[in-house]
């Protein structure tokens, strides 16, 4: 998976204050092969001005 990080057009100044998790499952059957995807996301606070740290795990 490739991720393009670009400077946002609107400077968001929100802070993650505690750990959070989200899960999403996409299933679509429309007569053909169908689609399936599952996404698990975890966000954790980091020190101020430490930037973005994106980790991918399988």
Descriptive notes:
The protein has 58 residues and is an all-beta fold. Helices cover 0% and strands 31% of the residues. The protein has strands spanning 20-28, 35-43. Strands 1-2 form a two-stranded antiparallel ribbon. A hairpin with a 6-residue loop joins strand 1 and strand 2 (35-43). It is elongated, with a radius of gyration of 16 Å. The mean pLDDT is 86.
Topology record:
Elements: E1 20-28, E2 35-43
Antiparallel strand pairs: 1-2
Which structural category fits the helices and strands?
mainly beta
- DSSP, total strands: 2
Number of helices: 0
Kindly provide the radius of gyration, computed on alpha-carbon positions and rounded to a whole number of angstroms: 16 Å
Beta-strand content estimate: 25-35%
How is the quaternary structure best described?
A: single chain
What's the overall average pLDDT, rounded?
A: 86
Sheet with the most strands, sense and barrel status: 2 strands, antiparallel
Tell me the distance between the termini. Answer: 11 Å
Helix share bin: under 10%
Shape, principal axes of CA atoms: elongated
What are the low-pLDDT stretches, counting only 5+ consecutive residues below 50?
A: none
Order of strands, main sheet, comes to 1-2
């Amino acid at each position: 998976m490739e991720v393009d990080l670009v400077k946002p057009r609107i400077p968001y100044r929100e802070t993650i204050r505690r750990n959070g998790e989200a899960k999403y499952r996409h299933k679509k059957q429309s007569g053909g092969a169908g689609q399936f995807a599952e996404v698990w996301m975890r966000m954790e606070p980091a020190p101020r001005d430490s930037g973005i740290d994106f980790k991918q795990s399988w």
